[in-house]
Structure formats: C-alpha cells, structure tokens
Design brief:
Number of domains: 1
CATH topology: Undecaprenyl pyrophosphate synthetase
CATH class: Alpha Beta
Number of helices: 8
Distance between the termini: 36 Å
Strand order of the largest sheet: 3-4-2-1-5-6
Strand content: 5-15%
Length: 252
C-alpha cells in the first residue's frame, strides 16, 4: 500500500493494491464528480430517500480524503443542481439541513487536512443559515493549499455562462478584447484548471448541465455504481482508467 494511505483503509482493501498501480506523475490535476444515484440506492434497499442522501454524504467525505491523499489538487462535487429545486419540498429541506450538518461536522477536519473549501453556484436561494456557514468555512480555509474542494450548490452551467456574460457586460468589456482567457475570469471556476476527468455514477451518460464550458476536453468516465457505493477502490479505478488514455486535445 502507498504510505499516504496507511491508516485510511486496511491492507486487505482492494483499494490498497490499486494505490500501487497508479502513476503519481500522471495524476489529473482536477477531478469533477456528478454524484448520482442516492434515491435509487435507497429504493433498492426499501429505505427512505433521506437515507440514500446520508450515505451519499459518507461517500463524498471518503472520496474527498482519498483524492487529497492521492495528490489531486482540485476536486469538484456536484452536490445540488439548480434543477433540484423541482423535487418535493420535504426532500429539498432535508438536503439543505444535511448540507448544513455536513459543513458543521466537517469544518475542523477540512481545516486540519489542509483543504480549501469553495462553493460554486447561485447562493441567493440557499437558506441564510447555510450561506453563513459556507462563508465561515470559506474564510477559515482560504489559505489552505493542499487541495481545493469545490462544492457545486444550486449550480447550473448554463446559468454560470449567462452570469459570466452579464459580468463581462457590466465590466464594460468590448467585443474586441473578449477572448477565452477574459471570459474565464468571470466563471465560478476562475481560479481552477479545467477538469481533466469528469466521473458520473449510477449508469447515466450525460453531463446534466455541469461544467459545460470547462469540460470541453475532459476525459469522461461513467460507472453503473450508485453514488453511496462509490468508494475509494472505484475512484482509484477511475484514475487508472484515465491514465490509460491518450489526451491529444485535437492534435495527432
């Protein structure tokens, strides 16, 4: 087992062998995850959907620490989309409480692990108490450097692009000076490299309005595993799959 993972999982864990196979010189700088399948996971087990979301939160914590130990500098988790407001009010309210609970319980560990937390998305619709907790965590972790963890909350990529265009217009940008670099300055992810790898769980094969501009040349990895069951071994398998690909960015 790679010494960075000692104490994180047992030597008998399948993930332990995978750590020895990964080429640490060819890690993706930025991995983005569409965490899908909480509801189906719960339904298959005849549990309430809320339990699926709780177990999904456990998976998010494990994958975040696994990425950190591996040496990935940026991780983005799609936690709540701008379309998720269409869900039943009771479920939305539960998710907001769960997010607040996650931030409250994880704040000290996030800081200790040298993780910088950023929330991307439209915050205005989030509960005031949750917005305050987010602001506290972002402030308290602003100088952390080992990994940046982006949580996409009330996020939609089309809205992000429109917001960037409005920002450019408000800043008085002229058509002649507008280029890709200038446009990126107004995106939520302006301080991040584009994702090298986008992973989606649950068997669905679409991006669902997630990082559409940023993922133009991302490698895509789809797995039928439902998010609560997506743990370190499968995450490391996705990294190995990424390392077997040849990235040409349009060249030969």
């Amino acid at each position: 087992m790679d010494k960075r993972f000692q104490g994180f999982f047992d030597a008998s864990d399948p993930a332990a062998q995978l750590t020895r196979e990964i080429d640490c010189r060819r890690l993706p700088r930025h991995v983005a995850l569409i965490m899908d399948g909480n509801g189906r996971w719960a339904r298959q087990r005849k549990l309430k959907r809320q339990e699926g979301h709780r177990r999904g939160g456990d998976a998010a914590r494990e994958i975040s620490e696994c990425a950190l130990r591996l040496g990935i500098s940026h991780l983005t988790l799609f936690a709540f989309s701008s379309e998720n407001w269409k869900r039943p009010v009771s479920e939305v309210n539960f998710l907001m409480r769960l997010l607040y609970e996650y931030f409250s319980k994880s704040s000290e560990k996030i800081s200790d692990l040298d993780i910088r937390l950023r929330v991307i998305g439209e915050r205005d619709k989030l509960p005031a108490k949750l917005r305050q907790k987010i602001a506290e965590l972002e402030r308290d972790t602003a100088k952390k450097k080992t990994m940046q963890l982006n949580l996409a909350l009330n996020y939609g990529s089309r809205q992000e692009i429109l917001t960037a265009v409005r920002g450019l217009l408000a800043a008085g940008a002229s058509p002649g000076e507008l280029d890709e670099s200038k446009f990126r300055e107004f995106l939520y992810t302006r301080d991040c490299p584009d994702p090298d790898l986008v992973i989606r769980t649950s068997g669905e094969m679409r991006l669902s309005n997630f990082l559409l501009f940023q993922s133009a040349y991302s490698e895509l990895y789809f797995t039928p595993t439902l998010w609560p069951d997506f743990r370190s071994a499968e995450f490391l398998s996705a990294i190995l799959h990424y390392q077997r690909r040849e990235r040409r960015f349009g060249s030969i």
